Amino acid sequence: MIIMGLDLATRSGWAVRDSAKHRSSIECGTFSVKDYEWEAKYAIAANLFWKLAKHYNPDFVAIERPEHGVRQFKKKGKADLTGQEETVSTINPAALQLTGIAGAIISTCQIRGIPFGTIAATSWRPVYFGKGIKPQDKQDWKDLAIQYAEREQIALPSTKAEQRDAAEAIGICTCWHNCAIPEIKWMQQRFMDLRTGAFDQKRKAAA
User: Fold this and answer.
1) Cα-flanking dihedrals φ and ψ of residue 16, to 5°?
2) 67-72 long-range CB contacts below 8 Å, 24 or more apart?
3) How many angstroms from the chain centroid is the CA of residue 125?
4) What is the pLDDT of residue 205?
5) Beta strands at 60-64 and 72-79: parallel, antiparallel or unpaired
6) What is the rounded distance in angstroms from the CA atom of residue 34 to the CA atom of residue 54?
7) Which residues of the chain are modeled with pLDDT < 70?
8) H or E segment and range at residue 74
C-alpha cells in the first residue's frame, strides 16, 4: 500500500512510502504557495496536491494536524515617551493560512476518494523519534528529522530549507497508523482495512 505524509505550511513537505519496499525508498519533497496571496494559496495548494495524488495514487494520506485556533504571543512594540518598549499581543498570520491550506488538501482527498487522517506533532514525534528524545542544543525538531532521514539513507531535496520540511513529512508518513480519522464511515472502514491488511486482500481478490 502507498502512504503519503504531509507537513503543511506555505511550503509543505510531503513523503510517500510503498510498504512493500525498504524505508530507504521513501520519496519526499516540497510544494510551495508562498508567492500567492490568501485565497489563491488554497487553490494552488489543492492543485499541487492533486498532481501529487494523481502521480502516486496514495491509499492513505496522513496530515500533521493544524491547530484548531490561533495562538497569541507577546512581542515588544514601539517605545513610549519614557523610552520603555511596550509589550503587545499578536498572532502569526501563517497560522490562519494553514487552516485554509489544510481545508483545501482535505477537500481534495474527499473528492478523489482518498481516506485521510490527522495527527498532532506532539503525537507523532514520540512515536517516530522515541519517547524522551529531543533535539540537542542549537537544533530543532526539523534538524532531528533530517538526521533520522539521513540515517535511513532516504534521499532528501537539495536545499536545507526543503530538507527541513520534507524530513518531517517522512515522520508523519511513518506514523500514519496513529492518525485520528474523521467521522466519515467509509474512511474509518478503509483505515481499519489498511491497518489490518484486509484492504490488500480485497484488492487482490478484485484484481
Assistant:
1) -135, 130
2) 67/95, 67/98, 70/95, 70/96, 71/95
3) 12
4) 83
5) unpaired
6) 23
7) 68-94
8) strand 72-79
DSSP alpha helices (H): ranges in the chain? 38-56, 93-112, 121-129, 141-151, 160-174, 185-196, 198-206
Residue 133 CB contacts under 8 Å (≥ 6 apart), including other chains: 126, 144
State the SS3 of 109-164. HHHHCCCEEEECHHHHHHHHHCCCCCCCCCCCHHHHHHHHHHHCCCCCCCCHHHHH
pTM: 0.86
**pLDDT for residue 66:** 85
Q: What is the DSSP letter of 180?
A: B
Cα→Cα distances 157→131, 137, 154, 160, 162, Å: 28, 24, 10, 8, 6
Sheet holding 27-32, edge to edge: 27-32, 11-18, 2-7, 60-64, 116-119
Distance CA 93, CA 37 (A): 12
- Hey, what's the cell of 64? 500533521
The Cα 52–Cα 54 span in angstroms is 5
Q: Is the Cβ–Cβ distance between 186 and 192 less than 8 Å?
A: no
Query: Can you tell me which residue has the cell 502516486?
Result: 56
